[in-house]
Amino acid sequence: MTKQQTLYFLILMTVCLPLRAEVKELKCDLLIVGGTESGWAAAIQAARLQVKSITLVLDGEWLGGQYTEQALACVDENKGTGKVGWGVDWHPMKRSFHRSGLFKELMDRIEAFNTQKYGTPMPGRPYHGPSTFRPAEAQVIFREMLQPYIDSGQVRLITRRYPVKADVNRQKQHPQLMGLWFAPVGSEKPDLHCTARLTIDASDWGEAIQVSGTEFEFGADPQSRYNEPSAPLDTSNYPANEMNPITWAMIVEESDKDSPIPKPKRYDDRNFVRTSKLSLSKMKQLQWDRPVRLGSIPHWPDAGKASPRQLSIFTVRRIVDGYTSLDHKTSILLNYMLGQDYPLERLPHHVIEALEETEPGASKKNIVLMNRQQRQIIFEDAKRHSLCLLYHLQNFVHEHAPDKTNSFRHFQLSDEFGTEDQLPHKPYIRESLRLKALYMMREQDGRNHDGPTKKFARERFAHVMYPDGLFAWQFHYDFHRTGRAYLKREGNKGPWIDYEKPGRNTSLISDRSVFPLRSLIPINMDGLLGAQKNVGYSSIVSAAIRLHDQCVAIGQAAGATAAISLRHGIAPREIPFQREQLERVRTALCGTLETGTPVLIWPYRDLAPAHPYFVAINRLAARGVIPMEVRKVDFRPNDRATTEWQRETKRLALETIEQSDLTLEISNEISRGKFCQQLWELIKDQPIRNFRRLTTHDADGDSILDVDDPTPFTPGKPIEWKQEKLTADQDGLLDKSKTPHSRRINFTGLHSAPLPNFEADHGFKFDQKRGFGWSRDIRHNHRQRKILPESYRDTFLFTRDHDIWECKVSNGRWLVTVCVGDSGHEQTGQWVTVEGNQVIKDVVTASGAFREQNVFVDVTDGRLTVEIGKATAGTNTCLNWICLEPAQ
């Protein structure tokens, strides 16, 4: 080495050594980024599964994510169309399933604390039925549940740090994340370097995923990406931040005196037209630059008369009710009502200016891609907007309240967060980035097919039940208003309101679904798992999987997957394709009580974890051993097991193990639950028959790549549910015993081939010469599915409103048979009357099933009158055929 090189080396060492000394080095088995409810659950689950060294790094001080830091203090949990009477007897829950897993353990503790402090497990008497809590009190419970593992040394907790760069080994087939560098919040200079065998990203914005270079998606998905029926056809004109809005929640509590807040900067009463004192005529004069329908805006009910205790904003998110609480004080969560949401698109002028000062083009970036300084600019304006709403409530509502001491002016911001502005540490984040995973969950996999609205949805299992499902979920695809409209004259320098963009909200609910392990695993990165809201699903599905219990379950599933991966030295990407390893993950989630309250894997409605056969039934169902029908969502464990059902269950069990027979006798006197328990005890330790993987990228060889195949071990389309056996009045087939004097009308399209012994009605208006027809022309309301061989079953005319069909007949008594249904789709709310007699009333027909109904009627005016549909239905009535014959 020359003198010059030596001098250069000494200078370099002088500069670098202090820097290196400032960086703390850590090693661990499992690194978890983010103290959200998902990160917390992953840490506890992994610790219970004996992972020796776990490091949990969070960017704040509080554990619990949306429960605590984000102040979503009314629990949103899985909801379906049916009710589960779980919990307090006087308060029926509109839950899809019984609580299970870590979520149940957490809620049991929260509700026990509430009972001790407030005298009731649900101190808010909430309008919609969720459990409630104070965020600061929940944070203590989160910490208490994790503390034993911190005390034992299994879990190391590091606060106020965030990842800034990653160590990635790119010499392997798949790049592998080896470690992360963390900087203190408020700095970009790392002071912590942590290497880990495996990392879970449970952060708010997928920061570990981003710094490691792992693939991810954000914003709206075009329909061409995942073929989702509700996705927009083209997203090229969508703003970058087309996603579920954030909301800066507020907790307000009763005060002993008036507690008005100062008027926030840029306050404008026109931001809150939903509660504004502007008259309806003046509101209509406000010209917005987007198509905002005033009729779609829910006005404050009786705003000039009601006190807050009578208003929905008071009851829908009440945390503690002063009438029933032991301390007689009311506290309320203000979270989304009356325009509090903060859309992320088309930002206000002052926000754009501030963003552009940080970096040219920053205002056009998606919030996922923004740095912390840029996000904070948006956060500060979201805070200001929420405070504007509170100011509006304290002044406008106070002005109109008959009892001035009972208005929002008598409420103050809670000081429980310890923040200078008395607001929560973070906004409620509904949508983050979406990990590009081994499988991206799609809307059509789990969407309920009953009807266009939740009103008509019926309980059923999902169209696709993933073979690697780890926990049950159900909710509706729920986008809040993603759009922002400004006044035409003032543009983005003036007031705005949020509005629902076409195609960005739907009342469709999901079916009873399972979450696949593949959606936790990156498609192109080893050593990393997703969690919280950084998992593999489309934007539409992300709107349905973001609730309190779901995020806990995602974290628990990630922690179990990580533990099995570490224990057996297998990459997570291999686990979904190796049944033995998959069953080990399921054992970790739904096994013995040593690993906590078992998780509900299969979405049965009537099974609670306390049931003695809960584990056996769940494990057998998830393995595909229990015979199922799409609508039988209750297992009924205490019902007698039929011999036929026992034989079929035993046969399916043998298909999953290497053993050729089972010493399990068929009995007429055994319950379904007990039979499952005996069967599970026989097979749970037997060598399992592995999935057959034909190729690396197409396991079942059906030319659908695994990345796009929801059921990668079932060739062709996803498994279709076995059609329930149709009775004679459900098959749509014309009764061969009809007399030769019968008259048969086939309702079909204009170009359908004529049928022997049928007359064809194509939807034309009534014609005297033809002798039948409609009160109006509905010839365009026809469908042919090309599914069934008999075209009179395969075609139909339909209405979504109310239409009248008449046919010339002789006066007298007639026997009329009406057939409704659809060979290709389920139809709901179908409605038919004949001569004023109701024959079909709100009838639901499954795909490929029909309803045939006979009725005797008396005709006195020479015309038989049939009415289909009703103007208020909003659903299809599908008329296949009618048979008329003189009554004998």
Walkthrough of the structure:
This is FAD dependent oxidoreductase. Keywords: 4Fe-4S, Iron, Iron-sulfur, Metal-binding, Oxidoreductase. GO terms for molecular function: 4 iron, 4 sulfur cluster binding; metal ion binding; oxidoreductase activity. It holds the Pfam family FAD_oxidored. InterPro entries: FAD/NAD-bd_sf, Galactose-bd-like_sf, HdrA-like. With 888 residues, the protein is of the alpha+beta class. Among the domains are: 23-75 and 131-240 and 433-475 and 510-589, 3-Layer(bba) Sandwich (FAD/NAD(P)-binding domain); 250-413, no CATH class; 743-886, Jelly Rolls (Sandwich). 23% of the residues lie in helices and 19% in strands. It has 18 helices and 29 strands. Strands 1, 2, 3, 4, 5, 6 and 17 form a 7-stranded mixed beta sheet that branches. Helix 2 (37-48) links the parallel strand 1 and strand 2. The radius of gyration is 31 Å and the shape is globular. Mean pLDDT is 89; it is low at 5-21, 85-93 and 295-310.
